[in-house]
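// run 5 | inverse folding | seed 20
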């Protein structure tokens, strides 16, 4: 992927200081205080690994906590959104004065869009949005509810694709979202078993950054490069591109020609193996660039966001 030693060092230092920062530790504890009346008991049960247990929210509701993930997500959605329901399978909350429902929410990254507003850089109003790395359709639904004219979303793993399809339907957004069972990066195809339960952390490439080795069985899934996507789906000028595909971003941008990139007014990419190569290509094609400082993950990824605009 062309990742440099300086990118790795910067990511490791940034990650270390974030974890060691007393402000971040205090903020985490304060989030539990704001969410739960019995926050001390909640934190104690988490430390002891004592599940399930009952917690009491600040609005008086009693909720069952089955694991530390659910305990954390209540602190996110209770403080940042009006949460209606949260259990092991269903998340329901209010966004822009309407109910939003996600099945199997913990296989996606709903909080990044709806709670933390990670994609607010992208003005999607009356725009066509190409969403590479659709997961459970969390960002696609977010873009549709933010006023996108059309969202064309790509998800290669059949099991996750089916969850995305269900989420789009339950939120009555079939007229706004085109869901495509395909991977992205290059033109070709792969075979993926239908029982593979990918999630937001499962790449179409392996950890070394090479193309996914074909399963050799299962569903035949097409893979498109960005030139093909623009042509096949009639992407107009002034469109928006969002990319979060756990490593396919390098092939996607490398293989894109100038005319293809000219179709996009704004691009937001979550990079996973460093940013320098992607930034260089985008600058050569007339984009202004801003990046977030990379973070280092236990899986060896160097991640952050690239924001590109004209």
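// decoded
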């Amino acid at each position: 992927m062309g990742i440099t030693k300086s990118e790795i060092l910067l990511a490791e230092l940034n990650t270390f200081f974030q974890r060691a920062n007393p402000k971040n530790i205090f903020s985490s504890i304060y989030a539990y205080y704001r969410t739960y009346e019995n926050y001390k008991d909640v934190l104690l049960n988490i430390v002891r690994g004592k599940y399930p247990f009952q917690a009491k929210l600040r609005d008086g509701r009693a909720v069952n906590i089955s694991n530390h993930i659910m305990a954390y997500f209540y602190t996110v959605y209770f403080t940042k959104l009006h949460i209606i329901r949260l259990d092991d399978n269903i998340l329901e909350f209010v966004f822009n004065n309407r109910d939003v429902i996600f099945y199997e929410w913990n296989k996606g990254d709903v909080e990044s869009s709806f709670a933390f507003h990670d994609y607010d850089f992208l003005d999607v109003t009356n725009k066509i949005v190409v969403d590479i790395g659709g997961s459970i359709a969390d960002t696609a639904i977010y873009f549709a509810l933010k006023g996108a004219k059309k969202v064309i979303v790509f998800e290669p793993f059949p099991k996750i694709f089916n969850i995305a399809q269900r989420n789009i339907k339950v939120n009555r957004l079939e007229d706004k979202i085109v869901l495509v069972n395909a991977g992205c990066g290059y033109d070709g195809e792969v075979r993926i078993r239908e029982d593979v339960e990918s999630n937001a952390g499962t790449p179409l490439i392996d950890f070394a950054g090479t193309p996914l080795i074909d399963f050799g069985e299962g569903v035949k899934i097409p893979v498109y490069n960005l030139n093909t996507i623009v042509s096949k789906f009639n992407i107009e000028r002034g469109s928006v591109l969002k990319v979060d595909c756990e490593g396919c971003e390098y092939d996607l941008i490398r293989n894109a020609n100038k005319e293809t990139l000219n179709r996009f007014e704004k691009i937001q990419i979550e990079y996973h193996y460093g940013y320098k190569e992607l930034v260089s290509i985008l600058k050569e094609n007339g984009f202004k660039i801003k990046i977030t400082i990379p973070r280092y993950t236990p899986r060896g990824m160097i991640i952050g966001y690239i924001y590109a605009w004209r």
